[in-house]
Amino acid sequence: MIKEKMIMKKTIISVLRIFAVLQMTKYVVIASISCDPRPRSCKDIILNNPESKSGEYTITQDTKTPISVFCEFSSKSHGYTYLKDYSESQFNVRSICSTTDEVKVVHLRTSGKRYGTVLEELKRYQSNYSLSLQINENKGFNAPLNAPFLGKYIYVGFLPRSIAARRSIQGYRAGSKDWEFNNCDANPNSYIAFFYNNSPLQTHSYHKRCCYNKYMRNWIDVSTRYSLPIPDDYFRFFEMHMGGCGGYVVPNYGTFSDIVGAVPGFRFDVTCSDIHCHHGGSCIIANGSPTCLCSSGFTGSQCKEKIPFSCKDIAISKGPITGEYLIYSRTKQSQPYNVFCEFHQTYGLTFVSNTNAIIDANELFEIKSQVVVRHLRNNKQYDSILEQITPYADKPLTVKYNSFAGFRAPLNAKKMGPYLYLGFLDKDTAKAKNTQGYRVNDADQTFVNCDRNPNSYITFYFNPKSNLPDGYYKRCCYTPLMKTWLDVGVPVDPARQLPKSYFLQFEMHVGGCGGYAINGYNTLANIKGAALGMRFEL
């Protein structure tokens, strides 16, 4: 009996443990589902995508009710948020702004044009006070006259009641200039209130008897044209009240008869505390903006992306989509350069644009049995597949950057380098008096080396100084062999055509009795350049 009771007790404990695990699992799943990826502010939007454009977006606050906002991305480090409306009186203005030192007010005129200016405290008060930004409240300040009539509002307070209730110099700062008045009767009004009322306006009548003056319009007159298309329904009825002898204004009346409405923009700032630099990167302030300084091997605004060193890296990270890309030199990662990646089913081709970057040819050239050379003639592009001739089919082609080690030196290396060097037969092999040449589009093109001269290459010059080639082409040695690979070129499909910056001046030299040519001269006068396509596996 005792044994049976112990077994039953253990069974109950096991069931309870399983139930507890299930309960924990349930809560974990619920927590995972409740994770809300929706942006809470314009700052979230620019942090999630630094390339975001100014425009209308939807954000979500704690109430989960979508809120329409217009995000002004002034730069990658700061901007302004303009509220179209808000559904809850508890909306927290501080959730969408980083500072209360300023507010940017954009107003709409009857002409349909928009103007904006930054409002601040007077300089004399800035060390002790900043603006007060409140929703449906005016704590510490005088209440707006239209609050009972027009409902919810955004309140921008300048001087609190305790300071404004003095006979002293007061006012506001706009357009980087102080606009001051003497409070003649200690009336403690110091604010602008922007009202969100969707019903027909029935406003307080105070504006009919008081107190328009030029001072109240200064912030309007110093504003500048605002080019971003904030929709018309963002612009709201507002009232501005200053003093004791400062003034009172609303749009569509008196000196404000040309003003339809206005909307305040709350400034947000992106700082290093907002930036997460991945893979060991660190945030620095560069030109006033937070920037990730990435560790070796990574790039991107937050160092999330692996640095691509080849078209194969591009295919792995972004997919095999033919087009132009930026890759980096593994030798010197501060030197990016443009390549054209052409992807086929099982292999790809890398073409290098004219650049001064240091290139690691071995990074780009994997399948060494053949290359594609694309040339430009009469604004049309043609491909030729070049290989070793049949007797040397087992000998790989060689591609080097600014080097000819093991091969004969190109004649224009010093004048027109750096260069890409395509070598067929190395110097030791090419110095024999035997059949040599190249294979193009499955056909051997041969000659007999008559004097053991071991030239066997095509060189593609980047030529940054645009120097003219050596005059050797004037005395030697055009032969049909120099043109055959060009004449049998196959037209390139428009989707794969290269930008003209990829076509480089080239020099071809084979033999002893094979020939020498440089494009742009003599029989190659109509050839504007060629690009070397290096093969890699997919």
UniProtKB/TrEMBL annotation:
The keyword Disulfide bond applies. InterPro entries: EGF, Fibrinogen-like_C, Fibrinogen_a/b/g_C_1. Residues 268-304 form the EGF-like domain. Signal peptide: none annotated. It comes from the Eukaryota. Disulfide bonds join C294-C303. SUPFAM superfamilies: EGF/Laminin, Fibrinogen C-terminal domain-like. Keywords: Disulfide bond, EGF-like domain. This is EGF-like domain-containing protein.
